[in-house]
Amino acid sequence: MRTATYFFIFLNLSLAVFEEPAVYPLPFLVTSLVEVLCLLVFFGRLTHFAKVTLRNVFWKDTKNICIMVAILLSLTDLAIYGVLRVYNIKSIRWSRIVRPIFLINFAESRQIRRAFRSIRNTLPEITYVFLLFMFSLLMFSLMALKLFGERNLRTAEGLPYFKNYLEIVFDLYVLVTTANSPDVMMPAFDFSSWYALFFIAFVIINTYIFMSLFLAVVYNNYKKHLKVMFGG
């Protein structure tokens, strides 16, 4: 039973590869039949679980409610999408986002639920570090707007450089990963090499200090909650 449940969960999640827009598109009839089969298996597994569980216990279990709601949402979305497809009306399968619910909420997925519960318990404790990092990012973005926005600098593509505050926030956020380094600072560097100090300071504070601190807080809190959960 456990192997069959995991197989159909994996099959249900794999449909995203074959549904439009897809990497390997299959006819809608094929993917819809496979999805209906998976949902029937999930419903059968839930029914079997209901027969061996006290009724009041079954209906008080949030996991069972989540699975039932996910099945209903998937069937509703599938029916609506099929009808719209008959009338050549383009739409999207919004119920795809509920498919991981089956992976998490079945009784066989106890270890996965523990991991997610640890992540959920860790989030409030890392909020302060994250807010501090965002404050630093916003302040550096404001400084960049004041430093470079009034100098009419241009990027290599001829676009305005650091003129829009939200675009600056995004560019500096990407710079934290060093994915756009050193391209993001070249217009300012070409104007004056001293402006490189701004970007060096930004990378040292946000990439090397804040990201290391963020990782340490996440790791320590996650490990702490995992130990408590497993009775360590």
Give the overall pLDDT as a whole number: 88
Radius of gyration: 25 Å
The description of the largest β-sheet is: none
How many structural domains can be distinguished in the coordinates? 2
Distance between the termini: 31 Å
The helix-strand sequence is HHHHHHHHH
3D shape: flat
Structural class by SSE content = mainly alpha
The percent range for helix content is over 70%
Q: Give me the number of helical elements.
A: 9
The level-1 CATH class of the largest domain: Mainly Alpha
Strand content: under 5%
CATH topology value of the largest domain: Helix Hairpins
Query: Unreliable segments (pLDDT under 50, ≥5 consecutive)?
Result: none
- Overall CATH architecture of the largest domain: Orthogonal Bundle
- Strand tally is 0
Organism: Pterocles gutturalis
Subcellular location: Membrane
Pfam family, one: Ion_trans
Domain Ion transport: 6-224
Q: What would you say this structure looks like, in words?
A:
Helix 2 runs antiparallel to helix 4 and helix 6 packs across helix 7. The protein contains 9 helices and no strands. The longest helix is centred in the middle third of the chain and has 39 residues, at 110-148. The two termini are 31 Å apart. The chain has 232 residues and is mainly α. It has 2 domains: 1-108; 119-231, Helix Hairpins (Orthogonal Bundle), CATH 1.10.287.
